[in-house]
Specification:
The chain is built from 2 helices and 7 strands. By secondary structure, it is mostly beta strands. Bound molecules: 8-OXO-2'-deoxyguanosine-5'-triphosphate and magnesium ion (2 copies).
């Protein structure tokens, strides 16, 4: 890695794809977090915006088109056992075409996608997602009061 230099953190963009009170999750087959439920997402490519990366990763992994893509927060995730350090950029988005159904387009990395109620999440969750859920993070837009 880096011709003998120490590894450096990577940047990933991860998407809360929202549908009513549900989020899209898939059980991971990748080595980091294998068997746990995680959000769609992946590594930022050179020159990409966070929004471009979110749309590309969701399309590559699920076939879904997204819109209303917004930045929410960032988390610092060290997976010591795997010698992986990722700064995750958390975005939220909605389906551009609600008639589309999520497809498992990277079956070597994921067991399949489904919608889960944010108040009744499947377990085990991927560590960084579990931490967010336990700290009371809510990815849904605040309700408007008139
Ligand atoms: P790529 O080759 O498509 O760029 O990457 P990927 O295979 O899709 O990467 P990934 O493991 O799905 O995501 C990259 C990193 O993002 C992962 O190693 C850890 C971090 N990450 C979090 N939280 C989440 C999450 O909820 N879902 C996903 N997919 N990754 C997450 O910190
Ligand atoms: Mg990916
Ligand atoms: Mg991924």
């Amino acid at each position: 890695n880096n011709s003998g230099e120490a590894a450096r953190p990577k940047v990933a963009v991860v998407v809360f794809l929202l549908n009513g009170n549900k989020v899209l999750l898939g059980r991971r087959r990748s080595s980091v977090g294998r068997t746990t439920f995680a959000l769609p997402g992946g590594h930022l490519e050179f020159g990409e915006s966070f929004e471009e990366c979110a749309a590309r990763e969701v399309k590559e992994e699920t076939g879904l088109d997204i819109h209303k893509i917004e930045y929410l927060t960032a988390t610092n995730n060290v997976f010591s056992r795997h010698h992986v350090h990722v700064v995750a950029i958390l975005m939220r988005a909605f389906q551009a075409d609600p008639r589309q159904i999520p497809l498992n387009l990277e079956p070597e990395k994921c067991e399949g996608w489904d919608w889960y109620d944010w108040e009744n999440l499947p377990r085990p969750l991927f560590g960084p997602v579990e931490t967010m859920a336990q700290t009371g993070f809510n990815p849904f837009p605040a309700a408007h009061h008139h």
